UniProtKB/TrEMBL annotation:
Lineage: Eukaryota, Metazoa, Spiralia, Lophotrochozoa, Annelida
MHD domain mapped to chain residues: 167-420
Name of the protein this chain belongs to: MHD domain-containing protein
Function as written in the Swiss-Prot or TrEMBL entry: Subunit of clathrin-associated adaptor protein complex 1 that plays a role in protein sorting in the trans-Golgi network (TGN) and endosomes. The AP complexes mediate the recruitment of clathrin to membranes and the recognition of sorting signals within the cytosolic tails of transmembrane cargo molecules.
SUPFAM superfamilies documented for this protein: Second domain of Mu2 adaptin subunit (ap50) of ap2 adaptor, SNARE-like
Organism: Helobdella robusta (Californian leech)
A cellular component term, taken from the record's GO annotations: clathrin-coated vesicle
GO MF annotations in UniProt: clathrin adaptor activity
């Protein structure tokens, strides 16, 4: 990877903290970073990588911070960005929030973490669970340097030895988010499913887990092509998964970290029938009032139910005197969002509901520069996957031979779910 220096800067480009791993880049080079960023912004040519002479700046912005990596080498740039995002993740797990104040409050521990995260420009221990075993929240170093846990020197660097639980359990959640964009005339412009398998593992010893999904490639290779299967795209695994095994026979085999982690993520670029369809009729009477008729329809099977559905309908900034009528749920006007929020606690499949809203408008109107923001929908459907992904089995093998209970849940929720209005 070869990252020479890592900096954390505030929004004005002032250095809050830095760690020079190689000593081959002059410390005043960072002064050029902010002027270069501003120059790119003025040109409308913002890029995450900026070249200055023989130095490359790769950076990400998080809250009110810039995290910047400098290198002179021909670095693996994907790994550089992955490292910067991993840094953010580790700091969040330590400090709960990552902003200028949390950096200033935790200088000592951040320097310790930077020393463990990377060595001579190469990523080292980046798993926060393992780091927390020997870099404590207090951040005070012992007089005698403590021995790092075995996990750091083990082949299985994400799990410590000697873990014991009275009750051995595994919780597995298949969480799918639906991204949808519908045009004002009802055409689906974008539709995709982004999925993740999240786990909470409370198992003793060094268990090996094997997970079987209804994976299309596997089903076709084993002659089960007719069975219900799903073609997963853009699959990304946690480092614990044996990739060679997956490439060979599509087996997802791994020794899991302890506690909570994301085992894998995937994407399906399939045409999804919108789960909650929203139609809107908006009558604008200039200088007097605006009326909305919103119809929401659940287009999934009757045995499923969407919970905590929120339909967020944008209204003009200067609207007042709201009146609502609904066949189900409740409405409230949120002036800070310039929107009506229609909440339906429980929305069974195959149902449709109506909401009418009436707003007064001032007799003198400002110039309409708002455009027409889309309707957003939030929802969660338990016990349901829109893609049809299924966990066929989860085997747990551990040399002591204990019995363990696997619990599997499915959840479908909204991602970026928008319907444009006329």
């Amino acid at each position: 990877m070869s990252s020479s220096v890592v900096y954390i800067l505030d929004l004005k480009g002032k250095v809050l903290i830095s760690r020079n791993y190689r000593g081959d880049i002059d410390s005043n080079v960072i002064d050029k970073f902010m002027p270069l960023v501003m120059e790119k912004e003025e040109e409308g040519n913002v890029t995450p990588i900026i070249q200055h002479g023989n130095v490359s700046f790769a950076y990400i912005k998080y809250n009110n911070l810039y995290l910047v990596s400098l290198t002179k080498k021909n670095a693996n740039i994907v790994m550089v960005f992955q490292f910067l995002h991993k840094m953010v993740q580790v700091f969040l797990e330590y400090f709960k929030e990552l902003e200028e104040e949390s950096i200033r409050d935790n200088f000592v521990i951040i320097y310790e973490l930077l020393d463990e995260l990377m060595d001579f420009g190469y990523p080292q221990t980046t798993d926060s669970k393992i780091l927390q075993e020997y870099i404590t929240q207090e951040g005070h170093k012992l007089e005698i340097a403590p021995k790092p846990p075995m996990a750091v020197t083990n082949a299985v660097s994400w799990r410590s030895e000697g873990i014991k639980y009275r009750k051995n359990e595994v919780f597995l959640d298949v969480v799918e988010s639906v991204n949808l964009l519908v045009s004002a005339n009802g055409n689906v412009l974008r539709s995709e499913i982004v999925g993740a398998i999240k786990m909470r593992v409370y198992l003793s010893g060094m268990p090996e887990l094997r997970l079987g999904l209804n994976d299309k490639v596997l089903f076709e290779s084993t002659g089960r092509g007719k069975s219900k299967s799903v073609e997963l795209e853009d699959v990304k695994f946690h480092q614990c998964v044996r990739l060679s095994r997956f490439d060979n026979d599509r087996t997802i085999s791994f020794i899991p970290p302890d506690g909570e982690f994301e085992l894998m993520s995937y994407r399906l670029n399939t045409h999804v029938k919108p789960l909650i369809w929203v139609e809107s009729v908006i009558e604008r009477h200039a200088h007097s009032r605006v009326e909305y008729m919103i119809k929401a329809k659940s287009q999934f099977k009757r045995r499923s139910t969407a919970n905590n559905v929120e339909i967020i309908v944008p209204v003009p900034v200067d609207a007042d005197s709201p009146k609502f009528k609904t066949t189900c749920g409740s409405c409230k006007y949120s002036p800070e969002q310039s929107a009506v929020i229609w909440t339906i606690k429980s929305f069974p499949g195959g149902k449709d509901y109506l909401m009418r809203a009436h707003f007064g408008l001032p007799s003198v109107t400002a110039e309409d520069s708002e455009g027409k923001p889309p309707i957003h929908v939030h929802f969660e459907i338990p016990y349901f996957t829109v893609s049809g992904v299924q966990v066929r089995y989860l085997k747990i093998i551990e040399k002591s031979g204990y019995q363990a209970l696997p619990w599997v849940r499915y959840i479908t929720q909204n991602g970026d779910y928008q319907l444009r209005t006329q």
